[in-house]
Amino acid sequence: MRKIFLLLFILGSLLVVNTAIVNACSCAQPAPPQESLKQSTAVFAGKVIDINVPSGIAGSSADPVKVIFEVSKIWKGPDYETLVLTTARSGVSCGYSFKENEEYIVYAYGEEDKLSTGICSRTTLLANAQNDLKDLGEGNLPTNPGFNYVPQTSNLITVISIVGIAIVLIIIVVVLVVRKYKK
User: With 76 labelled, which of 21, 40, 43, 152 sits at a CA distance of 20 to 30 A?
Assistant: First the structure.
């Protein structure tokens, strides 16, 4: 019995010691700018004006995050001043980690009204895209407004506001009732 336990312990130790780091997302080197342009549904430069991360405690790294852009240049795709695209919540699931108020060159895929991107595309900060800008050329200014974007408030903020208002109203009613019965 001791020998079996010892053998299992040694095999288990080898499994732990010999583990390799595995990433869920694995990408090939992106194609050059002109080839990536041909392969993409949309290629544009723009500033991130809002990021809508799904709310909830338990979330998946693959949950879609909506990223809203104020578009400054278009090489391919929809001609709008404002575009929305999705990316996975985490780089583990190939999502691109955009930051609000930063400018990017975006290589997006999917339907024109359901654009997506990720870390496997050539999407990068605009400041790091000098070769792309040189190879892609001038680009076009957007001419259609797209949609009027109003930043969404968090569901949590809305719930807290409603609860706060309800508590204030209950306190007012209780105070009025107490005053009425004291007279």
Answer: 152
Cβ atoms within 10 A of the Cβ of 70, count?
Answer: 17
Query: What gap in Å lies between CA 86 and CA 79, rounded to an integer?
Result: 18
Could you give phi then psi for residue 108, rounded to 5 degrees? Answer: -115, 155
Q: Say how many CA atoms lie within 13 Å of 182 toward its Cβ.
A: 6
- Domains (ranges, CATH) in the chain? 28-145 (2.40.50.120)
Tokens 């930051």: give the residue: 99
Task: Return the residue matching tokens 């001038």.
Answer: 138
**pLDDT tier at 154, thresholds 50, 70, 90:** low
pLDDT, tens only, 158-177: 566 677 787 877 888 777 77
pLDDT for residue 21 is more than 50: no
Q: In this structure, which amino acid lies at residue 5?
A: F
Where does residue 80 rank: exposed (0-12), middle (13-18), buried (19+ CB within 10 A)? buried
Distance CA 85, CA 68 (A): 7
Cβ partners under 8 Å of residue 154, min gap 6: 55
